Each structure stands twice: as structure tokens, then as C-alpha cells.
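Researcher: Going back to the complex we discussed earlier. I've cleaned up the inputs and rechecked each line, so this should be the final set. Can you rerun the prediction on the complete assembly and write out the structure?
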Amino acid sequence: MDIQLKKGLLEICVLSALKKEESYGYKIINDLRNVVPLSESTLYTILKRLESEKCLTTFTKEESGRLRKYYRITQAGKDKLQEFIDGQEEFITIMQYITRREE
Amino acid sequence: MMYTRSEWLAALKDETKSLPKEEQQRAFAYYNEMFEDKFEQGMTERDIVLSFGDPKIAAKAIIDEYLESAPQAPEQKKTEEENPYLPKRAQNDDTTAIALLAGIALWPLAVCACLVAFILTLGALIGGGVCIAEAVHIGTTSTTNVTSFIGLGVFAMGFGVALFYPVSYGSKKMFTALKKFLREIKEGK
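Model: Rerun complete. Updated structure for the full complex:
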């Protein structure tokens, strides 16, 4: 898949995983494992971009005797996710157009 | 190469040393935590390091992402002239202006040259035809000068035919380029 397009979709996937509950790196990769396999470095860049876009905030929590970095979706993140969901019909129409052409 | 946990993290640190300390630390902490989590889930050190892949590749992804988002980072804000992340146009305004001026000065010349070449070609073709027609006309009344008229006519027509294709091709190209140039000026590029 086109790298920019994929990056955008992965951002949405991560936001979607975070909408359910606040989460941490390993858990996000694990939750999305069956949807899309993410490498650690890919997730790192996605999280960083989403943070700089203020779509998520971070905080640390002490768990099992160590600090773990957690990510929490912000209103801007929820808006971005909703915007994508609202545009899904357009996306599906485009996909249908493309695949019909390919047949 | 096979890494241990500390070797892998040290390699990552080394490969990301071009980044600001804070960024380097952030990447290190991320992978360190990821290691802890995987280890807690029962993965072996060897498998975890293998799953991380080459630290050089991981570092490259981190650096690329940093460079891509750098214009927004306040510590990277430089003055306009020296910021390598700014779009090229902002820095190339001078060159664009020179090219534009040169273009404005050169286009009329190019158009004139095309016109002259076109008239020359047309003239040679018509002139050649007239010469041959004249030769045929003279031939019916007198045989003098027929050969020289035919010779001149054939030469002129040949000249015209030889010029016709390069000239029409050249003018077509030139007018396409001119149209593009005018459009670019209009769009303020």
C-alpha cells in the first residue's frame, strides 16, 4: 500500500484503539495485531505524530514496580477519528471505483 | 549481528546521537519499556531483540520522523534563510525572478525567430514552385534559361521541404512551452 496512505490509516487505527481505553505501546501493538501488524518503530512514529498533532496526551503510571508510559486520546483525536468515520462512505465509494476499474 | 538487550539499546542510542538529547532519550525509553513489556509476557531476550530488528533501521525511522515534523518543533525554528525544512520556493525566489525576467526578454526573440523560419520555409516552397512553373511556361515559347529555372526551382523547393518539418516541430514545441510559461506566470509560480 502507498506509504502515506497507510500512515494515515494506521494513525486512525491507533486513535480507534485509544478511544476504547488509554493504553501503552506494547498493548496497542497487541490490540491491533489481528487488524494490522505494526512494528515498534512504526508505532513510535505514529504516536509521536499524533502527540505533536495534539491528538493524544501522555502520562506515566507505576505498574509492576516500574513506570509505564500511557497514551490517552484527546478531543482533537476524537474529532479526527470521527471525521474519518464520517467520510467512510466517500472512502468506500473511491475503493469501489478503483476495484471496479481493476477488474 | 546478534545483540543482547543492552547492546541493542546502546546501538540505538549511538545511531540516534544526531537527535537532540530529549528525542534520543524518548526513543530509548520507548524501546526499553517495550522490552520490559515483552519480557513480562514471557518472550526471551533473544526473541525480543530479534523482533526489534536492526537498530540502524529503527533509528532511521525515528530520525526520518523527527526531520519530517521538525518545522513544528520550537527548538528547530531557525531564521527563514537557513531553515532547510522550508519549501524550496521560499528560498528560490531570487532564482525564480531571474528566470522570469530572462524568460520575458527571450520569449519575443524566440517567437520572432520562429516567424522568420516559417516565412523562409514558405517562401522557399512557393518560390520553388513559381520557378518551375515559369520554366514550363518559358519551355513552351523558348528553350533559353529553362534548365537554370528548373534547377533553381528544384533547389528552392528542396530547401523548403527540408526546413518544413524541423521548423513546424520547433514552433509547436516553442508555443507549447510559451503557453506553459504564461500559465505559470498567471498562477504566480
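Model: Worth noting: Chain A has one domain: 3-102.
Researcher: Good, that matches what I expected from the previous run.
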